[in-house]
Amino acid sequence: MSGTWITTRAWLLMLPLLVVMIAVIGWPLIDTVRLSFTDARLVGTEGTFVGLANYAKMLGGSNFLRAFVTTTWFAVVSVTAEMVLGVLAALLLNQQFRGRTALRALMILPWALPTVVNATLWRLIYNPEYGALNAALTQIGLIDSYRSWLGEPGSALTALIIADCWKNFPLVALIALAALQAVPRDITAASLVDGAGPLNRFRYVIMPYLAGPLLVALVLRTIEAFKVFDLIWVMTRGGPANSTRTLSILVYQEAFSFQRAGSGASLALIVTLLVTVLAVAYAAMVRKAAGAS
Amino acid sequence: MERQNPVFTAFVYAAALLLAAIILTPILWLFVMSISSAADLSTKPLNWWPNEIDLSRYRLLLSTIENSTGAAFTASLFNSLKVAGMATLAAIAVAIPAAWAVSRTSNVSWSLYAVIATYMLPPVALAVPLYMGLAYLGLLNSVFGLALVYLTILAPFTTWLLKSGFDSIPKEIESAAMIDGARLDQILRLITLPLAAPVMATSALFAFLLAWDEFFYALLFTSDLRAKTLTVAISDLAGGRVSDYGLIATAGVLAALPPVLIGLVMQRALISGLTSGGVKG
After folding, report:
1. Is it true that domain B69-275 has CATH number 3.40.50.11540?
2. Optimal mutation site among B120, B215, B236, interface A, most CBs of chain A within 10 A
3. Is B21 on the interface with A (CB under 8 A)?
4. Torsional sign, CA B200, B203, B209, B213
5. Mind telling me how many Å the CA of A198 is from chain B's nearest CA?
6. Contact A196, B2 (CB under 8 A)
7. How many domains does chain A have?
8. Contact A42, B130 (CB under 8 A)
9. This model's pTM is above 0.90
10. DSSP per position, chain B
11. Could you report the predicted ipTM of this complex, rounded to two decimals?
């Protein structure tokens, strides 16, 4: 069979997928770009061309900057905590102890819990009147009176970050554990014979095996965290006093609550651009790390 | 580790207990809330274990008496099943030929990276035109419309998983059959697809879980019992004026049950999927 025919056949086999992708991703993306230059409303008016006015309005307003800072803080803190906790849990699960298999199986649970259920669960735990956190802290004696963890601008974002970490650090742990189990036994044994301490062993023997998979996990988690919507919408809807309003929440409000499709689209594209920059930068890092090892 | 120092062993067990407690406490509490009476959940100091086990909320939510809380909940449960089922089937159907073609034809594999790259797109980048498009087609608040939109997530995802599945089936088996005179459709039907059955099943389950979990599009594109999914129903309960927290917890337990069971059963596949970087967090 000729090469041309094989290539043509490949494209024919990909045709259904490509048609679907163009219909549900390609076209909407292009239309978002078109809308971002108009003053279209979500329902009703088609809108007229307004040039870069939407972009200027969105980037110039204080809402964008504040949401950007909130999103970055959420992503950096939660992903860092997830990485650290995940690696610690993986190092633990890599030890020999009774109940290890069962504990590893438990790690699946937070991952499997639907995001909305996780958000609802933590919302109940943080409840200002009857929540378990208030009850536990009062009974231990750490706080005197019940607090509204999600209702105070000072604590709401941290409370969200804890809920996000709890759901996602086990995933990092499982990825790291799989990488740890790929470290050959004789290398760790040799490093012990050579008298390497635990820290040096981690840095020079284990880390080279861990770095690649962890970097991939870091990339995927950061992008996910930067796009966060579900968790925040269910727990605080961006409040109190907009202290947990991330970029995705801001786009939702602009395009759907206020029905300003045009400016909402421009904001959505700014977010897309930020995620793309993040993804490209990370992809370069991963490629470099893969080349180094 | 090789060193079996008793202090170290004690430390390992203490850390393992702590980790188990961190993972289990919130989940157990969700379950305890679902079986505690409203009175037990609203006393101070809080009752950490119910005075008597109250299963009435499970009966309430799973009842199908018209216009009840239960009818709304079961309707959303069925909507979730329908949407996730349809979207998964459609995604697998378009992904199988594409994934096979990419796996066997290296000079078109760049197209796969283009497909995967769309996976990074924030849903807000597509939401406004999708909303207008669905409105135009009369598919807002419809399980079909939502299933169609879910292909934005499921189609790239399943193609990616299936492609790595096909990669692990040796090309030589197909070439040998071709030399014996088998046609392409025979080769795929009799050799490749049966060999790929496990990876197709895994991909389908993961795709189903992704759709089951989805909230953003469901929130935007559905508005009542005809199409509202479980995630939206739960968010409504959590954000609404429901005064019985146990009811919200019960809805959470029921919604979490299928993915948690699938997760526990599929541990192996999940972990191998994680290590190849093929599973979304």
Report:
1. no
2. B120
3. no
4. negative
5. 11
6. no
7. 1
8. no
9. yes
10. -----HHHHHHHHHHHHHHHHHHHHHHHHHHHHHHS-HHHHT-SS--SS-SS---HHHHHHH---TTSHHHHHHHHHHHHHHHHHHHHHHHHHHHHHHHHHHHH-GGGTHHHHHHHHGGGS-THHHHHHHHHHHHHHT-TT-HHHHHHHHHHHHHHHHHHHHHHHHHTS-HHHHHHHHHTT--HHHHIIIIIHHHHHHHHHHHHHHHHHHHHH--HHHHHH--STTT--HHHHHHHHHHTT---HHHHHHHHHHHHHHHHHHHHHTHHHHHHHHHTT-S--
11. 0.92
Query: If DSSP codes are grouped into helix, strand and coil, which group holds residue B72?
Result: helix
Do the domain assignments include residue A196?
Answer: yes
In B, which residues are within 8 Å of A101 by CB distance?
none
> Residue A286 is part of which domain span?
54-292
Model confidence over A189-245: pLDDT tens digits? Answer: 787 788 778 888 888 888 888 888 888 888 889 999 999 999 999 999 998 999 999
pLDDT tens-digit series, residues B231-251:
999 999 988 777 788 999 999
Q: Which residues of A touch B238 (CB under 8 A)?
A: 119-120, 123-124, 234
* Within-domain flag for A25: no
pLDDT digits (tens, 9 = 90+) for B11-44: 999 999 999 999 999 999 999 999 998 888 888 7
Domain residue extents for chain B: 1-54, 69-275
Measure the CA–CA gap between A16 and A9, rounded to whole angstroms.
13
Residue with tokens 């490093």: A191
Q: Please give, rounded to a whole number of angstroms, the shortest distance from the CA of B67 to a CA of chain A.
A: 24
Question: Is A33 a member of any domain?
Answer: no
Are A171 and B274 in contact by the 8 Å Cβ rule? The answer is yes
Phi, psi of A274 (to 5 degrees): -60, -45
